[in-house]
Design brief:
mainly alpha, 0% strand, elongated
């Protein structure tokens, strides 16, 4: 298997695991902080602005960090081999 194919498989598996863990952590964190469920649709007029903004910032930051950790973990298992022609 080529290095590129190994990277696609490893980064895909890492992304799936990271997305599952991130979703769970965000929901638990929101419940702990607010005592309620996170907003289903922050863009809805029924969601308060502060709640929508806090949820959007929190999910963006946590998702970005999660993506970085997933990519670094995949690279670690591939002995640091990240294809130079592709970052996204």
């Amino acid at each position: 298997m080529s290095q590129r194919a190994r990277w696609i498989v490893a980064s895909g598996l890492a992304a799936m695991a990271a997305s599952t863990l991130t979703r769970s952590a965000l929901k638990k964190g929101w419940n702990s902080a607010t005592g309620g469920d996170p907003p289903l649709n922050p863009a809805s007029a029924e969601t308060a602005w502060t709640e929508a903004l806090v949820w959007t910032v929190a999910t963006s930051v946590v998702a970005g960090v999660s993506r970085l950790l997933a990519r670094r973990t995949a690279a670690h298992f591939l002995d640091g081999g990240v294809p130079t022609d592709r970052y996204d």
